[in-house]
Every structure is written in structure tokens, then in C-alpha cells.
Specification:
Blueprint lengths: L5 H4 L2 H16 L4 H26 L2 E4 L10 E4 L1 H28 L4 H20 L3 H20 L5 H30 L4 H7 L7 H18 L8 H7 L2 H26 L2 H7 L2 H21 L4 H22 L2 H32 L9 H6 L1 H15 L5 H15 L3 H26 L21 H19 L1 H9 L8
Antiparallel strand pairs: 1-2
């Protein structure tokens, strides 16, 4: 039965789509987009079906080529990996719909390579999620990373420099991970995650294991943009084309956060990284600093995309804080925020792309109430996502912050509660200055003519519909948070947490 192969059928259509879309697109350019959209749709079907399957039947182990681990490569889909795979491919599918008109405006004549690289990017991320093999994870990590550099480099004039910096730091991150993996293989003799987890407690000496874990955390931290390893992120998100930012910001760093969870709580046990050697404590404090620093820097920005980029540094800090708390409530908050931030930030970057499509700029000082009158749906989507980022109920962002607060209290750390509250206030400052310009300011920056009649000039339907779907999802996911936590996240709770 073909459905039993669903772990490999999540990344495979994306890889095949990339290989088919490029040559056929060179022959006939109009073929590339339908192929890319179809490949992403098929992958999304298997991701959703796979999540439903594992929630009903339990973890599904798939042995590539029928070779059993630890010799063969194993793909594993459990509640957590199935959940993250749906987020990755679901966001990717909506951005794929969005990107068609956006690319025609921003990157004419480059749609074919962009769609092909986008498919490789999604294939790399989804492969990282479903693999149960540490080296196979590195292979998919490199596929996703190389594709991400390309997505950034085709943006505006400063994009190649941003992509080069991203390439340098990303390569350092991948090298750290690979070096750590090499040390881990030296002492365990295995690359399978579950087999390595079984061997580590049997080792008499932990010196090389600690070196390996430290290197892997630094490498993944660079990919995740965890403070202070985030230096590649602001320029990459700012200067990438709108569709590129919409791919990168919601899901790239979230998959790295998922990998960090896997390494800390599956390959190593919570007691090892939390109680015995305090790795999680370091992660929690660095993330707390990153939450405040990212929010302060976001306030200082004059461009909407750059403000959203620095905001991402802060939001990634929330996920890192939940991981670093290393307790059940913190874990729920971290995983819930992976989903919530993916949806919220995708909405905001699509809004930014809509504004750029119609106005040709995203400088905040040029916004006034004509923006809301010209683009009412886009403006409403921005408000919904902004309220969620601040943490206003019943939007999704409130509930993940709520669990992080509970996790901090459970850990007896009231400083983290203060950090979350202070960051929410800072979010109010930088989001409400834009809402104020959209709904109140009458500076006439968008038009100097006092007699010009204001007409609605929304983004094209193919860009507006994904934006609206994501904005609605921000509210729906908030209302369904208890269902998601009870049926999915609690099923994925690591043993010993």
C-alpha cells in the first residue's frame, strides 16, 4: 500500500518537482509554476494524512530501502514531526500560491529558477523533520540552506551581500553540527537517533559527548538564529524578495528549533541536558536576552520588513526560552509558538509583500490612513497578526505566551515572566505605531494631491487570499489551542521531561 510510504512521500514530490520544473520551465516558462504548486500540494496531502495516521496509530517507522537501522536510514513520523511537517508544507503551499504574482512584479524572468529553488528549500526542511538519522539530517540541512542562500541572493541591490553573510555564518553553523556529529559517531558508532539515544547512557566517559553536544547546539543555534548567533537574519529577511522572505521567516528557523528539540530531548535525555550539565539553562537565559534585544531593535527600525526581521529574533527567543525551561509547560509553549509564530510571521510578511506590490516601498514613515483606505483587507490582516504577536486573546500568540509564563512560574523563575511581559509591551510600541499610521494618521504621504479620489487598490486575488487565510488562521488556531495541545503536543511530550 503506497500510503505506508508516506514519510518519504512528504519530501519526495518536492525534490522531483524541483528536478522537473527547471528543465520544463526553460522549455516553456508557464509550466514551472503549475508543477511547483502541484508538487507542494501532493506533499501537503501526505503531511496532513501522515499526521492523522500517527495520531490514531502511534509513531510510524519507515526503513529506507528496507534496510533496518542502525545500518540503514530510518524515517520516523511521530506526533511532533508530523505536526511540524504540516506547518512547513502548509505554509509553503500558501506562499507558493502567493508567489506567482509577487514574482512577476519583483523578479520578472526569474520565476522558473525561483520556483525550483523554493521546492528544494521545502524538500530540505521537510526532510529534516521526518528523518531519524543524524547524518541524513545534515544532508537535508544543506539542501535547505543552499536553497535559502539562493532565495535571498536574488532580492534587491544589497541582497547578494546579505546572502554572502548568510552563506558564511550558515556554513559555519553546518560545520559545527557536522563536527559535533563526527565526535558523537566516534563514541557511539551510530548515526540513528534512537540507537544513539540508547547508547549514550551506557558510556562511562562523557567528555567527548559533551564536546559533541556543545558543537551541535552552536551549529543549530546559528541556523535557528538564536541570540547572539542571529547576525545573518536581519539583512537576509530585509533584502530578500517578498516571496523569499515569506518562505524563510515563518519556517526556516522553526525547523532548526525542532531539530534542537530532537537533539536535546530525543538523542540526549532531558535529565542529561537539564539536570546533569545545565545546557538548557544557558539556552533559556540567552533566549531571554534575545527576546528583549530583538524587541528593542525592532522599535528602532524605519522599514516594515526590517522591523519584522528584528521581531523574528525576539520571537525565536520565545521558542528558545520554552526549550530552555525543559519542563512540560515550557515544551508546550515552545511547540505551540513554533506553529503560532510561523502563521503570524507568514501573515505579516505577506502583508509587507502586498504593500510593496502596490506602493513600491515599505518605509513606515510614508504610511498614512490612505494605506488602509486603499488596501482595507491587507490592513485588517496586519492588525490581526500584530495583535497576536503582542499576545492579545483570543489570537494564537496569546496562548503560547501563556504556556511560557506558566512554564516559567513552574520553574520558579519570575525573571522570565517579567521578560515575557516587558517584551509584549515593547511589541505594542512597534506594532501600534504602524496601526496608528494606517488608521489615524492623515499626513498625506501616499498622495500629495488633496483632490485625488481614493480607490481601493488591493493586491491581486492570488496574493490576497493566502494573506487572508493566514490571518483567519491566527484566530482559529487561538480558539483551537486546547485541542491542539491535548491531541498533538501532549502526545509528543519527550520522555523524562
Amino acid at each position: 500500500m503506497i500510503f505506508e510510504h508516506f514519510p518519504i512521500l512528504i519530501p519526495l514530490p518536492l525534490l522531483l518537482g524541483a528536478m522537473i520544473a527547471a528543465p520544463l520551465g526553460v522549455w516553456k516558462r508557464d509550466l514551472a509554476y503549475p508543477i511547483a504548486l502541484f508538487a507542494t500540494g501532493v506533499s501537503l496531502f501526505f503531511a496532513v494524512s501522515g499526521l492523522i495516521f500517527v495520531l490514531n496509530t502511534g509513531t510510524h517507522h519507515y526503513h529506507l530501502g528496507s534496510w533496518a537501522p542502525p545500518i540503514g536510514i530510518e524515517y520516523v513520523v511521530d506526533a511532533l514531526s508530523g505536526f511540524v511537517a504540516v506547518i512547513v508544507v502548509g505554509i509553503g503551499f500558501l506562499v507558493m500560491i502567493y508567489s506567482h504574482r509577487s514574482l512577476q512584479r519583483e523578479l520578472p524572468n526569474k520565476e522558473v529558477p525561483f520556483h525550483s529553488v523554493s521546492l528544494l528549500f521545502l524538500a530540505g526542511l521537510s526532510g529534516m523533520v521526518v528523518t531519524g538519522d543524524l547524518f541524513n539530517l545534515y544532508v537535508f540541512l544543506e539542501i535547505a540552506s543552499l536553497s535559502a542562500y539562493a532565495l535571498v541572493s536574488v532580492g534587491e541591490k544589497r541582497a547578494p551581500v546579505a546572502a554572502f553573510r548568510y552563506l558564511l555564518l550558515g556554513t559555519i553553523g553546518a560545520s559545527f553540527y557536522l563536527l559535533g556529529l563526527g565526535y558523537l559517531y566516534l563514541v557511539t558508532g551510530s548515526l540513528n537517533m534512537l540507537d544513539t539515544a540508547r547508547i549514550i547512557p551506557l558510556l562511562q566517559e562523557h567528555g567527548l559527548v559533551l564536546v559533541a553536544l556543545t558543537l551541535m547546539i552552536v551549529g543549530i543555534g546559528l541556523k535557528m538564529a538564536m541570540f547572539p548567533l542571529h547576525l545573518w537574519l536581519p539583512d537576509a529577511y530585509t533584502y530578500a524578495p517578498s516571496a523569499g522572505s515569506a518562505y524563510l521567516a515563518p519556517i526556516a528557523t522553526k525547523v532548526s528549533a525542532y531539530v534542537l528539540i530532537r537533539i536535546l530531548f530525543t538523542v540526549f535525555e532531558p535529565a542529561f541536558v537539564r539536570d546533569e550539565f545545565s545546557f538548557t539553562t544557558v539556552i533559556a537565559w540567552l533566549s531571554a536576552v534575545g527576546i528583549i534585544w530583538g524587541s528593542v531593535m525592532a522599535i528602532a527600525q524605519k522599514d516594515l520588513k526590517r522591523m519584522l526581521a528584528y521581531s523574528s529574533v525576539s520571537q525565536i527567543g520565545y521558542i528558545g526560552l520554552g526549550i530552555g525551561l525543559a519542563n512540560p509547560l515550557g515544551f508546550i509553549g515552545a511547540v505551540l509558538h513554533i506553529m503560532n509564530h510561523a502563521v503570524m510571521k507568514a501573515t505579516l510578511f505577506l502583508v509587507s509583500g502586498n504593500i510593496f506590490y502596490r506602493l513600491g516601498f515599505t518605509e513606515i514613515s510614508k504610511f498614512d490612513d490612505k494605506l488602509r483606505k486603499k488596501m482595507p483587507v491587507t490592513s485588517v490582516a496586519f492588525v490581526i497578526a500584530a495583535l497576536s504577536m503582542i499576545g492579545i486573546p483570543p489570537t494564537a500568540g496569546f496562548f503560547s505566551k501563556w504556556y511560557l509564563v506558566l512554564g516559567s512560574i513552574d520553574a520558579g523563575n519570575w525573571i522570565f515572566v517579567f521578560v515575557i511581559a516587558l517584551s509584549s509591551l515593547l511589541n505594542v510600541v512597534y506594532f501600534f505605531r504602524i496601526i496608528e499610521k494606517m488608521y489615524i494618521s492623515k499626513t498625506k504621504n501616499l498622495s500629495e494631491s488633496p483632490v485625488e479620489e481614493i480607490t481601493i487598490k488591493e493586491a491581486p486575488v492570488s496574493m490576497l487570499v493566502p494573506t487572508l487565510i493566514l490571518a483567519i488562521a491566527v484566530i482559529v488556531l487561538g480558539l483551537l489551542n486546547a485541542v491542539i495541545v491535548d491531541s498533538v503536543i501532549k502526545s509528543a511530550m519527550p520522555r523524562g521531561l
